Amino acid sequence: MSIVVRAIAALLASLAVLAFAKDNASGQFEIRTLSNRADLISGGDALLEVVVPQTVPLQHVRLSLNGADVTPSFRTDAASRVMRGLLTGLRDGRNEFLADSNGQGKGRPRATLNINNHPIGGPVLLGSQTQPWMCATPTPTLAVGNQPATNASGLSTSALDAQCNIAPEYKLFYRTKTPVSVVTGDLGCSFVLPDPSPTLANPTPVTPSNSCFQPCNAATSSPALVASTTTTHGMTVPYIVRVERGTINRGIYDIAVLVDPSKPWTALDPQPQWNGKVVYTFGASTGQPRLQFRSEQNWADDSALSRGFMVVDNSLTDSLYNSNRVLNAETLMMMKEYVVDHYGEILFTMGNGCSGGSIQQNTAASIYPGLLDGIQPSCDYPDSITTGLEVTDCVLLVNFYVSPEWTALMSGKSQSAINEKKAAINGHLDQRGCQQWNNLFGFNGKPGNYVPFVVVNPTTGAMAPNGAPRNNCLLPAALVYDAVTNPNGTRCGDADLSTAVWGTTANANAPGSVRARQTLDNVGIQYGLNALLRGLANPLDSRSITAEEFVMLNEKIGGFDADVNRRAIRTIADLPALDIAYRAGIVSSGAHLGQLAIIDSRGWDEQGIHYIFRSFAERARIDADNGGNHGNQVMWRYGTGLLPGTVAQAAAVTVKSFLTMDSWLSALNMTAPKETLNSPRTQAKVIEAKPAAAVDLCFLLADTTFSTQVTDMALCDSNSPQADGLGRLAKRASPRQVAGGPLAENILKCQLKPLNVVDYPAGTFTTTQWARLDAAFPGGVCDWSKPGVGQQPALSPLTFAHGPGGDPLPPAPGAESAPERISKLR
Predict the structure, then answer these.
(1) What distance in Å separates the CA atoms of residue 476 and residue 351, rounded to the nearest whole number?
(2) Cβ partners under 8 Å of residue 692, min gap 6
């Protein structure tokens, strides 16, 4: 943002404050917390603003916290009649802040605001935290017997308490004048992490010599060594970055920003090289460890830092270390509050992240609308809970494909013909997609110790056990659930990390124990339905299955039991969990995703797990909840892999997305300022601010220099046709879409309709086959024309402070007129 634009923005903000003061001329004190809602404050401090009525002389104002005078800690702007200050020393629970026109006589303006403070270690939105939880240590340790291992924290001291709070530390790094290395082997520097943590193999790591950031001290900070940079608002400054590392909500965070080490920084006086904008990075993959980690993210984001942005992360917003999506949103909320309290007010927050990082962005936006102003998901999934449907379907399918029944049916067919049938059932480009799901994440729900049973031959689909026993908690085996030997041990499945959200129910596999409620369900799903219909329409189509194959598939596919063991009968969801998933926004809401700017960059991974259709599934949800309008979501596709691998690709996708999002949110800030830090906007306002560069586009496969943006979506879809007849950049499907389900892929459990022969072409099944199919679907088959069981609009944000299930957050508390019984300050 230019200096002129920033000046205009400041002027508008000042006029808004003056207008507010004028409106308040005959009224009461106005008190508002600037860093978060007053009932969701954490960490013992809060940035406050008090607007003083014009009838009250400013010198008579007295401010108190729990009866103690805090007036000296507030700064007064006489022109706007606004007082601002950072309250510190808040006690856990209820605190009373009083604004009093002291000495003004009976009936004088007096107002209170109740502030509910929570520990810096959490929780805030959740009512409880997962246990056990192993604190990180300065150097990592190995597990010894039943004593769990610990991870390196990236900090020099140990935890101060059972909440795994560690004292924050600050490091300075300078950007060297060395040119960036753009080709492997070139002399130059790279933006690798300059402060690696100790490992068992390397207990005393140092900054890599090829890092563009080097430790900054009196000997290294001379102008001859330090590069300079120019921020978005026109300041040219030495390129020195301060990194704060500490703990919030039991996660380890980084806050990196340009700094002048010789000057102070407070929330009321932020250093001017920070442009007020935050880039929040979310980590990939997924996991349920019970250990505290340092973030997997690299804070050394030159594109952001060099322009004056603040870069923020926390290990609990890394999906690899936390798959509890409410906890992810809670941590993001607490991080933003901390930034405001210690660095100053935030203009806007944009997210980025691939795969699990896209899940964290989408679900944060859905679970608590307004936390993020714009997101840049790459390798996109709308959420994890509906992605899990495809994962578990694929586990069932790859195991079915090695069953004696399927093997017998395939006798005499070539391997390529068999693989075409698998692809037809799976909905993917080829048979490898479901194999990848099984091998990478097929055991995510396992509550105990297990040995992965994986596909070892991608051509034939042969499967075998792989490796030693393990568990998803990363705890010693003896501490973990076993249905026979340790029924009350720690359960380590995905849902088990979120019992504060789902609640628990009796575990049929281990009487006397409980498990987390879960949403998995495949009752009534006709696997391979469209592959059957395709073959009936064209018997020569290789991507099809026969009636016998369809019947056998649905007879034998089976499901999972309470401990995610495969079984002959289908999986049945816990009905209360379905209700929670939708109400809380854990199934990402199209209505809430419509309230922020989205630039979705989608590389090609159709033989892996990051399928193009997922971006379109997100779009379908936005369309469904916004009258067919998805103008707030922009999609950029390219065919050369998940993440930029060349300089041209990075410039055309990653950096271009960042700059476009900055333009979009800067314009949105001008045209539709937020009422509060975390309030959402309307889709119309988001679209109105969209810059010209924010359009759907692709880069064709032959365009290796990424020099030509293609906006003809038909050309993008048809580019470089594949064996399945679709272009490289076209969307394919999932097993549930092949079964007739919607592109939005947001039905966890379908409503059923009776199995009816008229729903299939005449003569499809023999009498015997029909009887077998009828037995396979005793309750009927999915009626995809109806909403899913429990499907409903999201009511988020919810609070789970009073227990699982959650309740909608009430209106944010405001100041109330104070009764005369409150003692006058002396």
Answers:
(1) 35
(2) none
pLDDT tens digit string along 31-55?
A: 999 999 999 999 999 999 999 999 9
pLDDT digits (tens, 9 = 90+) for 193-234: 999 999 999 999 999 999 999 999 877 778 889 999 999 999
Which residues are registered as beta bridge partners of 638?
699
Find out whether 216 and 168 touch, Cβ atoms under 8 Å. Answer: no
Average pLDDT of the segment spanning 286-314: 98
pLDDT tens digits, 596-639:
999 999 999 999 999 999 999 999 999 999 999 999 999 999 99
Closest CA to 662 of 357, 352, 406: 352
pLDDT digits (tens, 9 = 90+) for 66-83: 999 999 999 999 999 999
Element spanning 808, H or E: strand 807-808
Classify strands 277-281 and 310-314 as parallel, antiparallel or unpaired.
Answer: parallel
> First-to-last CA distance in the chain?
47
b/e 334-343 (16+ beta carbons within 10 angstroms → b): bbbbbbbbbb
Residue 116, helix vs strand vs coil: strand
pTM value? 0.95
Give the bridge partners for 82, in sequence order.
51, 77
Residues 6 or more apart whose Cβ sits within 8 Å of residue 368: 125, 329, 332, 333, 585, 678, 796, 797
3-class state of residue 479 by DSSP: helix
- The pLDDT, as a whole number, for residue 539 is 92
Tokens 């880039």 correspond to 279
Q: How far apart are CA 538 and CA 115, in angstroms?
A: 68
Of all residues in the chain, the percent with pLDDT exceeding 70 is: 95
Helix (H) or strand (E) holding 151: none
Residues 205 and 197 sit within 8 Å (Cβ to Cβ): yes
Q: Which amino acid is at 407?
A: T
Buried b (16+ CB within 10 A) or exposed e, 223-245: eebbeebebbbebebbbbbbbbb
Residue 2 clears pLDDT 50, i.e. is over it: no
Q: State whether the Cα torsion 818-42-240-677 is positive or negative.
A: negative
State which H helix or E strand residue 127 sits in: none
Given a cut of 50, whether residue 20 has pLDDT beyond it is no
CA 202-205-209 angle, 5° bins: 125
The CA distance from 491 to 485, in Å, is 13
Largest Cα separation within the chain, whole Å, is 99
Supply the DSSP string of 325-348, one letter for each residue. Answer: HHHHHHHHHHHHHHHHHHH---SE
Place of tokens 């502030």: 115
Please state, as a whole number, how many other Cβ atoms lie within 10 Å of the Cβ of residue 733: 19
Banded pLDDT at 183 (limits 50, 70, 90): low
Model confidence at 492: pLDDT above 80: yes
Q: What is the pLDDT of residues 113-137, one digit of tens each?
A: 999 999 999 999 999 999 999 999 9
With vertex at residue 452, the alpha carbon angle to CA 133 and CA 525, rounded to the nearest 5 degrees, is 100
Per the structure block, which two tokens stand in for 69?
């005078």
DSSP string, 514-546: EEE------TT--TTHHHHHHHHH-TT-SS---
Query: Which pLDDT score is estimated for 221?
Result: 73
